């Protein structure tokens, strides 16, 4: 796999954790999943055991098995495999970080603990520092997702002086719609080679304008090809084509959001598009309804699988 010195950039698929109908993890389809991402979507970086992967609904043993399978099956096929190792327990987070290093992952990411929450930047940095120290050779990313964690510490504030405290800090997965905060993260850290990975798929073009270096998201599992077209158009300064791509993606996301779009629905859509069975989600999530799946299928067809004319 890629040297950890290489900056994580471009599209990063937030991977789904395939499960059996009985809710057990199903490692048997991950090899097929890797090939699908690379060959059909042109996506060669992944973010494992995050929100989309139901990482916090898995126990430590399951998280280790899933991480290991992705690293093994992705070898010589994927560029970078980043493992999310955040947990409510510092000890579990450290164990997962150490394990990620042992299996040859390319980086680790951590969300803020969200039950007993850090109340200020210093407390959060101290927690992150302890996790990062368990894998001192791996690039470390902070996963900022305040809507789910309830931890509202601004990313701009967190980044101020973070590399002095966490030498392995390499960047941010920014899953929030606050483009002021995101823009300031970029603006105030221009001298550093940080990865600024945006996590709100339907607003990616706005974030690219603000200086995003890449994106992590669930829709890149099945809309990777279309989103890559947008990145290429943006790169060649063809903003009209880039905007058409973003609007096309938005049409689909807007449609499914109105019907309740989350991890369960992502699993259903991915099963539909890829033909790889992703299975149901784990409780407390409920399986996507048949009606949702039928509607999503019709919408994908009407948009020609999101390959709208540019």
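Q: What amino acid sequence fits the structure above?
A:
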């Amino acid at each position: 796999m890629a040297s950890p010195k290489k900056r994580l950039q471009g599209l990063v698929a937030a991977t789904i954790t395939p499960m059996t109908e009985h809710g057990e993890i199903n490692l048997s389809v991950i090899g097929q999943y890797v090939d699908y991402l690379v060959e059909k979507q042109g996506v060669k970086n992944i973010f494992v055991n995050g929100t989309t992967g139901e990482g916090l609904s898995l126990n430590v043993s399951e998280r280790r098995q899933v991480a290991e399978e992705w690293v093994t099956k992705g070898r010589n096929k994927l560029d970078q495999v980043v493992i999310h190792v955040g947990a409510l327990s510092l000890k579990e987070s450290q164990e997962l970080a150490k394990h990620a290093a042992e299996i040859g992952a390319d980086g680790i990411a951590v969300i803020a603990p969200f039950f007993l929450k850090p109340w200020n930047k210093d407390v959060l940095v101290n927690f992150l520092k302890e996790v990062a120290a368990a894998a001192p050779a791996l690039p470390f990313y902070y996963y900022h997702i305040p809507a789910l964690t309830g931890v509202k510490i601004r990313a701009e504030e967190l980044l101020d002086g973070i590399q002095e405290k966490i030498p392995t800090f390499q960047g941010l997965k920014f899953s929030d719609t606050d483009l002021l905060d995101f823009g300031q993260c970029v603006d105030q850290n221009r001298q550093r080679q940080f990865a600024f990975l945006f996590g709100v798929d339907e607003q990616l073009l706005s974030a690219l304008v603000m200086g995003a270096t890449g994106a992590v998201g669930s829709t890149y599992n099945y809309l990777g090809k279309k989103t890559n077209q947008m990145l290429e158009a943006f790169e060649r300064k063809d903003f009209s084509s880039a905007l058409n791509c973003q609007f096309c993606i938005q049409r689909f996301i807007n449609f499914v959001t109105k019907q309740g779009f989350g991890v369960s629905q992502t699993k259903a859509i991915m099963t539909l598009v890829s033909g790889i069975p992703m299975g149901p989600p784990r409780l407390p999530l409920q399986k996507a309804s048949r009606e949702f799946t039928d509607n999503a299928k019709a919408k994908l067809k009407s948009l020609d699988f999101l390959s709208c004319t540019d």
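Q: And what stands out in the fold?
A: The chain is about 45% helix and 10% strand.
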